[in-house]
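cron nightly-structures :: item 1 of 1
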Amino acid sequence: MSMNDAPRSVRLHIGFFGCRNAGKSSLVNALTSQQMSVVSDVPGTTTDPVSRSMEILPAGPVVITDTPGYDDEGYLGTRRVSRTKEILRRTDLAVLVVDEPRGLAKADEELLGLFREARIPCILVWNKTDLIPQELRSRTIGDPLIREIHVSAVTGENIPSLRELIGQTARRRQDDGERPLAGDLVHPLDLVILVIPIDESAPKGRLILPQQQVLRDLLDHGAQVLCVRENELESALGSLQGRCSLVITDSQAFGHVSRVVPDEIPMTSFSILMARYKGVLLQQLEGVKALRTIRDGDRILIAEGCTHHRQCGDIGTVKLPRWIREYTGKNPVIETSSGLSFPEDLTPYRVIIHCGSCMLNEREVQARNAQAFSKGIPITNYGMVIAMVHGILDRALRPVPECGNLRKH
């Protein structure tokens, strides 16, 4: 996969924040060397977040988001500030743009507090440095955890240095290492079967992102991979004569796959592995227990991280609700959300069932889980729920070492 093809979920998300007329949009345009945002002298020109995927060297593939002024006023201003806070949930690096001649405003200090609270790395950019004498270009907040730089979006002063600062942050993120996905579950030359249903919900001509990522991760670790449809699985296992080390399936096929795959062959799903990869596996494993106490009328939120055309037999709106009702013997109220839309108020819900979150970056996934945890709302995912309703949750978690004693309920 080239940098230009990298999905948003694996890109570094960089948010530009600050007051109206601090020069955020001008700085974004200068940094990206393209007219990404409309620029004018009128405060509040940027009324909605503007995001674009691109490549910025030395950072590599990124998503740049230009946000409205955080000091905006009135009803629309309040709405814009709310949208800005939504952007924070998926921001890996915050760039706070401050009008240097004007100095740090109250809204800037509030933003710095939000960054600290969310533990988001921050670069403070003192902009419009061309409007003050050289000897006065020394403003600083003196925080050792925040990198500071003086630039001019108009003259281009220190713009290359800002790119380098962003690149250094990206490299530190890469050096921290990613959580394991699937490659550490096997040894070189082990044979792994991926069960990939090709039905009306499968995208034409391509694999969905979790399938791509797991396939690439296994190949990177030297495993041999065989991809089959669920109706070909039994034949494939027979031809391999016991050589299979692991089966990974789309969760929707859990029932069929668990009946076909011998118990001695480890088996799990893409969505369970994605929860592991995003760092929410154990919390979502605890959350699945709430399904056993569902009562008539309880509200359940089924949340998806992407938007797609709903079809007959859709997993989120048709299959999961049916399986839940059959398993619990109750009639809960099922509500749905999709894409970047996620309710601010989760208190009405008895449990949240999330998709594998392949289209959301790690910070967004963890922010949603933390939001649920802070309100005491159990949250789990598709794979764990489907495994539970089919009576195979323990088996589906067996290959994942982190689960340990927690997998039994």
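cron nightly-structures :: done
Residues 159-175 form the longest helix (17 residues).
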